């Protein structure tokens, strides 16, 4: 048994360790030990809690911890770096689900003991049910979209916003009724959970696959808020602090993503964008693209002084991160300079491309953010665009009628020449034509990114 | 009421602290940041343990069991995968 004051103190230590862990994430050098410290904080919190007075049996706890740890460990070990967005989506969902269940159990506990919870506990219980359930089901839908077990296109139906709003109003009504009713009625409790799960589904289905980075960031934030609400329910300040930290992180990341796409959060959430319905005034008719052979491209890259690689999601899909590094190594060996230009929304979640390139042992000093590298494109001999589309579409700068107009892009079209590796002429996620492909300086190299890169490497070795 | 206001104060201050901390994280590390922050949100394990170990009926205990499983997946999975990613950023590029 730990005295309450000591318990509170140890929880504070855990909270401080979380803060230090996040602070150390500001540099790749300190990030790993920082994460470890954060983990130590979590371990401390768990151990302290196990001495809690209220715990009378350990069978359920032991079984749950064993199952959860094993599954979590297995997932973390086996997940591919390309599938990281799905993994994070699932983890968000688990966090939300856990908050939902803790809130639910606390409610049932009050019902079991016949006590009436204080007003603030009753209200935050309902909130933890709502936010937890929305996070759980919303994350599962986001996972399904990313994993492509369901369509990545927005699913819309008439009166969708009205239905969502109505669902929310009914949940709020039921929750209020539950809080106001001292009698032991349980149906509103289960109805709130069921409808909140439904709401999570309804909120995420109209959002297109390309906007999933924003959704994951936002659900990340929700999972934190759900934890904080649970903290209010069980009167635990550690949950409130940790939940608030995570809540703010998700909100900031969502904002960064939205800014990088030049869209408001409301537009992402309710705009049903990315379904291939959007059109600009420009059409591809009458325009021709120039194709280049692997041999010619290899020569061009082999004699280039400065190459900027622009990786996109296509690189991740083709698992081509190792092949691109091999190519870059060869160019460097021949005296050229290689940099990577990373658009904030490249990949399927914030920072995804950096992780993939780090996996392929690319030195992070060579990865440049958009603002740093955009002024360097004009002196690049070749911009090598690999499976990226919308983030290099010059229409974003010039064509006011384009749906992506105003979105900050990488200036790949300003390089002396541009080589685009692409599977075919299909449009990007935004469903719009890309002027870059029709530029006089642009050459297209069709095929699977990994195979093409491997052939480029073989070809360059013979130079 | 006083305890509640103290908790609300903590919540608000921690949110601002979070904003300050997260704004310093470079874009490069945003994916590990998300998974790492995610692991921290697994702090609901604290609540989960208490409800799973309490004797308040089997429904409550079933909820508790589910909560412990989910929270542990969140915690262990989150920290382990974050470590796996960060390790790739810290190791020196080979063969140089």
Amount of beta strand of chain A: 5-15%
Helicity range of chain B: over 70%
**SS class of chain B:** mainly alpha
Average pLDDT reading of chain A = 87
Q: Strand share of the residues of chain B?
A: under 5%
Shape of chain B: flat
Q: Which class do the helix and strand fractions of chain A yield? A: alpha/beta
Poorly predicted parts of chain A: 274-282
Largest sheet, spatial ordering of strands of chain A: 3-2-1-4-5-6
- The averaged pLDDT of chain B comes out at 88
**Which residues of chain B form runs of ≥5 with pLDDT under 50?**
none
Number of strands of chain B: 0
Layout of secondary structure:
The complex is a heterodimer of chains A (463) and B (96).
Chain A: H1 4-24, H2 28-50, H3 59-78, H4 84-113, H5 119-146, H6 160-180, H7 187-204, H8 212-233, H9 237-260, H10 265-270, H11 294-302, E1 306-311, H12 313-317, H13 321-333, E2 337-342, H14 352-359, E3 367-369, H15 370-373, E4 382-386, H16 395-398, E5 417-422, E6 442-446, H17 449-461
Parallel strand pairs in A: 1-2, 1-4, 2-3, 4-5, 5-6
Helix pairs in contact in A: 1-2, 1-9, 4-5, 4-8, 5-6, 5-7, 5-8, 6-7, 8-9, 11-17, 13-17
Chain B: H1 2-23, H2 30-41, H3 45-53, H4 58-90
Would you give an account of this structure?
The complex is a heterodimer of chains A (463) and B (96). Chain A is α/β, with parallel strands linked by helices and 463 residues long. Chain A has three domains: 1-78; 84-270, no CATH class; 294-461, TPP-binding domain (Rossmann fold, 3-Layer(aba) Sandwich). Chain A has helices spanning 4-24, 28-50, 59-78, 84-113, 119-146, 160-180, 187-204, 212-233, 237-260, 265-270, 294-302, 313-317, 321-333, 352-359, 370-373, 395-398, 449-461; strands at residues 306-311, 337-342, 367-369, 382-386, 417-422, 442-446. Mean pLDDT of chain A is 87; it is low at 274-282. Chain B is built from four helices and no strands. The longest helix of chain B has 33 residues, at 58-90. The model of chain B has no long low-confidence stretch (mean pLDDT 88). Chain B has helices at 2-23, 30-41, 45-53, 58-90. Chain B has 96 residues and is an all-alpha fold. At the A-B interface, α1, α2, α3, α4 and α8 of A face α1, α2, α3 and α4 of B.
């Amino acid at each position: 048994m730990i005295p309450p004051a000591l318990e509170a103190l140890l929880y504070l230590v855990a909270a401080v360790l979380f803060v230090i862990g996040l602070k150390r994430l500001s540099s790749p050098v300190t990030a790993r030990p920082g994460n470890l410290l954060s983990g130590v904080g979590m371990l401390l919190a768990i151990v302290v809690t196990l001495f809690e007075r209220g715990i009378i049996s350990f069978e359920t706890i032991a079984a749950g911890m064993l199952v959860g740890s094993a599954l979590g460990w297995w997932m973390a070990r086996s997940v591919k770096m390309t599938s990281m967005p799905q993994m994070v989506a699932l983890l968000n969902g688990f966090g939300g689900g856990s908050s939902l269940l803790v809130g639910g159990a606390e409610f049932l506990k009050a019902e079991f003991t016949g006590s009436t919870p204080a007003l603030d506990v009753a209200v935050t219980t309902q909130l933890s049910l709502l936010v937890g359930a929305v996070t759980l089901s919303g994350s599962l839908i986001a996972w399904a979209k990313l994993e492509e077990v369901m369509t990545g296109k927005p699913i819309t139906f008439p009166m969708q916003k009205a239905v969502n709003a109505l669902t929310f109003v009914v949940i709020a009504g039921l929750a209020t009724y539950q809080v106001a009713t001292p009698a032991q009625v349980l149906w509103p409790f289960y109805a709130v959970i069921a409808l909140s799960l439904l709401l999570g589904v309804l909120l995420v289905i109209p959002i297109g696959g390309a906007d999933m980075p924003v959704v994951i960031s936002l659900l990340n934030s929700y999972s934190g808020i759900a934890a904080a609400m649970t903290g209010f329910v069980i009167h635990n300040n550690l949950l409130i602090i940790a939940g608030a930290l995570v809540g703010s992180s998700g909100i900031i990341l969502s904002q960064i993503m939205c800014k990088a796409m030049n869209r408001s959060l409301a537009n992402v959430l309710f705009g049903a964008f990315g379904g291939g319905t959007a059109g600009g005034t420009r059409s591809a008719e009458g325009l021709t693209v120039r194709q280049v052979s692997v041999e010619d491209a290899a020569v061009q890259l082999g004699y280039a002084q400065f190459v900027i690689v622009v990786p996109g999601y296509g690189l991740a899909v083709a698992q081509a991160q190792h092949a691109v590094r091999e190519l870059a190594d060869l160019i460097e060996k021949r005296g050229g300079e290689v940099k990577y230009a990373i658009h904030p929304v490249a990949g399927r979640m914030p920072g995804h491309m950096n992780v993939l390139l780090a996996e392929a042992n690319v030195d992070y000093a060579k990865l440049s953010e958009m603002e740093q590298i955009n002024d360097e494109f004009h002196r690049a001999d070749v911009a090598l665009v690999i499976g990226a589309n919308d983030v290099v579409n010059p229409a974003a700068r010039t064509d006011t009628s384009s749906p992506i107009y105003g979105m900050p892009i990488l200036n790949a079209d300003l390089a002396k020449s541009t080589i685009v590796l692409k599977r075919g002429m299909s449009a990007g996620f935004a469903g719009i034509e890309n002027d870059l492909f029709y530029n006089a300086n642009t050459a297209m190299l069709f095929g699977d990114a990994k195979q093409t890169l491997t052939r480029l490497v073989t070809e360059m070795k013979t130079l | 009421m006083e305890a509640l206001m103290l908790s609300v104060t903590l919540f608000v201050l921690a949110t601002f602290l979070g904003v300050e901390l997260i704004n310093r994280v470079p874009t490069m590390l945003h994916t590990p940041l998300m998974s790492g922050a995610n692991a921290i949100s697994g702090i609901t394990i604290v609540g989960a343990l208490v409800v799973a170990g309490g004797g308040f009926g089997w429904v409550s205990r079933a909820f508790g069991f589910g909560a412990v499983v989910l929270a542990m997946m969140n915690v262990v999975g989150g920290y382990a995968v974050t470590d796996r990613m960060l390790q790739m950023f810290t190791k020196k590029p080979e063969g140089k």
